[in-house]
Request: fold
Amino acid sequence: MILVPVGEFPEWLLARLSRRTRIPLGPPRVDPAVAWNPGRGQYDSNRLLAELKAHYDGVVIGATACDLFIPVLTFVFGEAEMRGRAAIFSIHRLREEFYGLPENARLLESRALRELLHELGHLRGLAHCQDWSCIMSSAHSVERVDTRGDKFCHDCRLKLEAAGAAHGVPA
Ligand SMILES: [Zn+2]
Ligand SMILES: [Zn+2]
Reply:
């Protein structure tokens, strides 16, 4: 499993996320421009997952600052193939600046880490969890990203362990 930037992504943040999850960094190979949708002014998340799979072998998680969408939703924080090979998450709407607030690097890092772990859970076959404090609960707003915890609940952790997926999941 590797973590790769898709388009411009703050280097310090990529390094921190790699260190905290112990997922090694890979080279940038996907240009997000191919997924640009001029009608929506956003980037097609499904297309980027396909690009990641086309450009990398093995399991790959893309980190981007592009605003992502899937057709049925106005935006997504991230997307992953269930029990699959590719995932992507975006910091576009995790930045305080997006909401007209002052920059907050620590908060950004904490949110980005939680999004990465959430998508990692999907890659490992976890569905959304009903426990609102679990990192696998669904979040459609940044407030929910903040209120959900940064840990997998007991049940989700057991499922992860059953899938043999302790790697890349900090305790
Ligand atoms: Zn999810
Ligand atoms: Zn859970």
Notes: The chain has a mean pLDDT of 93. The chain has five helices and seven strands.
